[in-house]
Amino acid sequence: MKMSADKMQEFFKEMYMTHDKVKRIKEKIDKLYQSAIYISPVISDMPKGQSNPKRLEDTIIEITDLKSLCEQLLRKRARFDRFTCDLTATQEKILSMRCELGLEWKEIATDIGMSISSVQRVFKYICGLAIASDLF
Q: What 3-state DSSP class applies to 5?
């Protein structure tokens, strides 16, 4: 699989942001649960009220879809975490500084004590490892 360094950097950034995204999704699920509590079901011999059974069904479907999305995101993040565990400390630091913190190459190079080209080479090597491990 051929991916540009920019695409891979964006993927790594998304992986670092997974927990924040899952947190927002869970907050939305909680709000949907709360709205579902106030949707009373219609029993066949009851007089028709303000309730809308279709709305309740749609809410349940949306909750189920969001839970599925959370599980999928967390599985991808777990694979990413296993991948980063196999990196050296320097490789993991470069990946984190670039993709999680969004630092420029020069800032990373200065912090680590390497040249900019060496840091970029290490990043490209990490990208190659990610492709080889079928992370994408």
A: helix
